[in-house]
Amino acid sequence: MSRNKGKLYVISGPSGTGKGTICAEILKEIGNEFSVSMTTRSPRPGEVHGKEYYFVTKEEFEANIAAGGFLEYATVFDNYYGTPKEMVINRLERGYNVILDIDVQGGLNVKKAMPEAVLIFILPPSLEVLRSRLEGRGTESREDVEKRLGQAVNEIKLIGEYDYYIVNDVLEESVQTIKSIMLAEASRVPEAVKPIIKEYESQQ
Ligand code: ADP
Ligand code: 5GP
Predict the structure, then answer these.
(1) Quick check: pTM over 0.85?
(2) Across-strand partners of 98?
(3) 44 lines ligand 1 (CB under 6 A)
(4) Overall domain count for the chain
(5) Which residues of 185-202 are buried (b: 16+ CB within 10 A; e: fewer)?
(6) Distance of CA 36 to the CA centre of its chain
(7) What angle is formed at CA 8 by the lines to CA 12 and CA 56, rounded to 5 degrees?
């Protein structure tokens, strides 16, 4: 049977809710492609250019906007973040699933550009747990933690635009749920059903 295009998965939710941790587990377990975003934020200790992000200057980012190089981009917590278009399209065309860990505005823009994308919203068990995860991660200043917490409910208000949601309490369960969603999505009847019908017609 002819090879299908890959599926695009968008993972969003408040900062500190566990998106990065979940994506890392999914990638370890199943061979999806993770889209590395471009950002103007500074690297955190241990973050590597080209792995977590492509860390660029504001000028470089704006040049890429002008060149039409982003599938979507947004300003999040005073920095630019964007999804490089070429890699995503290329991998999908080759039949790989691609995962984006992006903010809610970005997720909604992807949905506009590619309505077939699957949007998954990750919720924290409570705002108190979210605070303790952000503080426990220890990568932001106190002021930045407050900024991220201050945005959490505004982001959650847009959950109605998403296809699935997961409360990230026990990590292994969240990973399992995403794997189940991916399994179910792989069996979704595609828009283009002709190749499936042709396959069986040719056997008549
Ligand atoms: P995000 O990518 O959404 O900003 P992270 O993946 O960086 O969030 O997670 C924030 C912090 O919470 C990290 O220190 C991570 O180890 C921790 N964490 C993530 N998921 C869980 C979970 N299910 N239970 C407990 N701690 C978690
Ligand atoms: P962080 O600074 O904690 O790595 O990320 C902050 C927020 O930016 C997170 O919600 C993350 O999902 C989001 N983000 C990361 N990359 C992108 C991107 O390419 N586009 C958009 N719109 N948001 C992104």
Answers:
(1) yes
(2) 8, 33
(3) no
(4) 1
(5) eeeeeeeeeeeeeeeeee
(6) 10
(7) 65
For residue 91, being part of any structural domain is answered with: no
Q: What is the pLDDT of residues 59-80, one digit of tens each?
A: 999 999 999 999 999 999 889 9
- Regarding beta strands 79-84 and 70-76, do their DSSP bridges make them parallel or antiparallel, or are they unpaired? antiparallel
Ligand 1 atom nearest residue 136's Cα: 14
Residue 111 forms part of a structural domain: yes
Distance 94 CA to ligand 2 centre (A): 25
Instruction: Kindly state whether residue 90 falls inside one of the protein's structural domains.
Output: no
Query: What's the confidence (pLDDT) of residue 139?
Result: 86
- Three-state DSSP string of the chain: CCCCCCCEEEEECCCCCCHHHHHHHHHHHCCCEECCEEECCCCCCCCCECCCEEECCHHHHHHHHHCCCEEEEEEECCEEEEEEHHHHHHHHHCCCCEEEECCHHHHHHHHHHCCCCEEEEEECCCHHHHHHHHHHHCCCCHHHHHHHHHHHHHHHCCHHHCCEEEECCCHHHHHHHHHHHHHHHHCCCCCCCHHHHHHHHCCC
Domain limits at 145? 8-35+97-202
Q: Is 64 in the pocket of ligand 2 (CB under 6 A)?
A: no
* Tokens 């959650």, residue located: 156
